[in-house]
């Protein structure tokens, strides 16, 4: 399934956030969306998910206007992993994951043993099965993020929209989440995720889209699109790019360009 965004504009009142965004993602791609805070990444994701009202034919899911889908139909195509939030209701981790089946079995119907077994298997694969009976308000932000990821995966949608999915994860869980996202893309899923880390894009993404001031200013393969000049423009700091050998291939890393000859603060 494909995601196509074309000439997307969006404003909160008089404040224009998105100013003609254009990009696309398809099966087998893991697209990293990079940009500074306030660039419009989360707003763009909410427009893709249909949470925010957009002009007709500016967001297309598998060739169809996103506004043409009802919530259940859209849930069968798109799964969303938000930035971690404190939950309003203290549902258990298992209950949270079981919510991912709602679009498949019908809202208001109760998941059966098969759904529970599948949810537990997913929690086991993400290393948080021991939290299944804990309330989501009683676990860490990183653990909650993994629960949201598990919920999205059991939803069985072929497009995954991940808004800074590693923001509160420790180093090990961050790697596990990104490696799972990479494998899902390799298996034919369409994965779009935002990140503040150029290294994550270099290591895991097949394509990047750089968002600045509400516009996509670069799109392409990470090793080609993420230049020193682009990253300095995005983040407002000097950087240096270096190539290293890693897992049998050459990858780039991004380092801050420290100012020399000045006293440390």
Q: Could you explain the architecture of this structure?
A:
There is one protein chain. The protein has 265 residues and is of the alpha/beta class. The chain has one domain (3-224): P-loop containing nucleotide triphosphate hydrolases (Rossmann fold, 3-Layer(aba) Sandwich), CATH 3.40.50.300. The protein is built from 10 helices and 12 strands. The protein has helices at 41-48, 71-75, 93-98, 102-105, 113-125, 141-154, 171-186, 198-204, 222-225, 228-235, and strands at 3-12, 15-25, 30-34, 59-61, 64-65, 78-81, 159-162, 190-195, 207-212, 215-220, 239-246, 249-256. The strands form 3 sheets. A 6-stranded mixed sheet has the order 6-7-8-3-9-10, sandwiched between helices. β1 and β2 (15-25) form a beta hairpin. α5 (113-125) crosses α6. The longest helix is centred in the C-terminal third of the chain and has 16 residues, at 171-186. It is globular and about 55 Å long. It starts with a strand and ends in a 9-residue tail after the last strand. The mean pLDDT is 89.
